[in-house]
Amino acid sequence: MSKRNAILAAATRLFSRNGFQGTAMAELSTITGAATGTIFHHFKNKEDLFLHVLKDVKESVLEQFDRHQQTCRNQKGIEMVEGVIAFYLHLAGTMEDQFLILHRHYPYQMAETSMVCRSHLESIYTCLLDIFEEEIKKGMQDGSIAVDSPRKTAMVLFAMVDGIVRLNTYRVYDAGTLYDSLITACRRLLTGGR
Amino acid sequence: MSKRNAILAAATRLFSRNGFQGTAMAELSTITGAATGTIFHHFKNKEDLFLHVLKDVKESVLEQFDRHQQTCRNQKGIEMVEGVIAFYLHLAGTMEDQFLILHRHYPYQMAETSMVCRSHLESIYTCLLDIFEEEIKKGMQDGSIAVDSPRKTAMVLFAMVDGIVRLNTYRVYDAGTLYDSLITACRRLLTGGR
DNA sequence: AAACCAACCGAATGATCGGTCGGTTTTTAA
DNA sequence: TTAAAAACCGACCGATCATTCGGTTGGTTT
After folding, report:
1. What is the pLDDT of residue B52?
2. Which domain holds residue B32?
3. Which of the nucleotides in strand D have any atom less than 7 Å away from a protein CB atom?
4. For position B31, what pLDDT does the model report?
5. Distance, in angstroms, between A112 CA and closest chain B CA?
6. Do B126 and B99 belong together in one domain?
7. How many separate domains does chain B show?
């Protein structure tokens, strides 16, 4: 693996575990074996490095969901929604670092000054909400889903699923056993109970 | 206001806006007009200061909810749930700094090493989940709510509401118009659609 | 009035931070 | 083969960080 990629990989882990300000370039240097000069040769400063990490996060998350979307056509809308929720929970486990970065407060703070940062975050959320919305619309057509506003329902649904992932990450309560309740809630929310 | 309280108030704002590592004791000194020596006279170090801030957050949040619980008895379970959700959203606005601290990742990281921190966080979440659970149980008795597990439903419900508050805080999407959808979702989730 | 004490001050300290720079090695391409 | 370019190195820099410490103040107790 090239030094550049090693730096990106290690930075992803450090930024997610220790946050932006909690991550020292010197530590990154130690872990990767790259001199500090090398890091600043590839990335013009710490913020630039973070932006590249976020870009990678965006690309891998979007790729994962695009791939998932292609493997499950020809289902009823509500089944597809349940499928994407299960996939979201699955990803939260396999891409723990990437999700943790998105759950930290720093990126959203940086987004207020950095357009690049903002656009990465918007890409991710737009993609996710679009998927939810499209599947809800499909469910409304095939009769498996009945709601007022697809977009708003998508946002509430996403907030619920992502909230569960957070509860799990923070380890204040064990939300690992909540999968069944989450799916039940989702189904009730989308069908109105039938 | 005593210097000690001024320090606590300013620290609450700085910790919530800039995070733990992003808050400099020197800035705290400038804002409050207290010498750095004075800060360290009242709090033995930065972490200790943070712990006292978190303690205040816990106490004010718990007090608010206790007070709210006393003003709305004699309602049906589902109405009480909807009431506490509305109150939660209301508090997220009036106690913005306190909620933001709880939405940051740092406290949960500190909770892994500091028992004091962990117990503050647990107090808050236990209180909130207990309220949701109690009201769901009440609704099950008066027939306004029908779910399988009150506790798990409480957690899913809480994750949903808190997720909406986060979406709002992060300003990636305007979740301010989601109140009606949230209540609708809540009602469907609790009644199964009747 | 003497002794005491908590609140308060701010200069000083050593560690650590992000970032630079001059130079060396490796890769690329002609 | 060679020259230019890209990758890489690590000592070094000034700024900033949390924390310390010797000393002052004003009120209370003895």
Report:
1. 98
2. 1-43
3. 7-12, 16-23
4. 97
5. 9
6. yes
7. 2
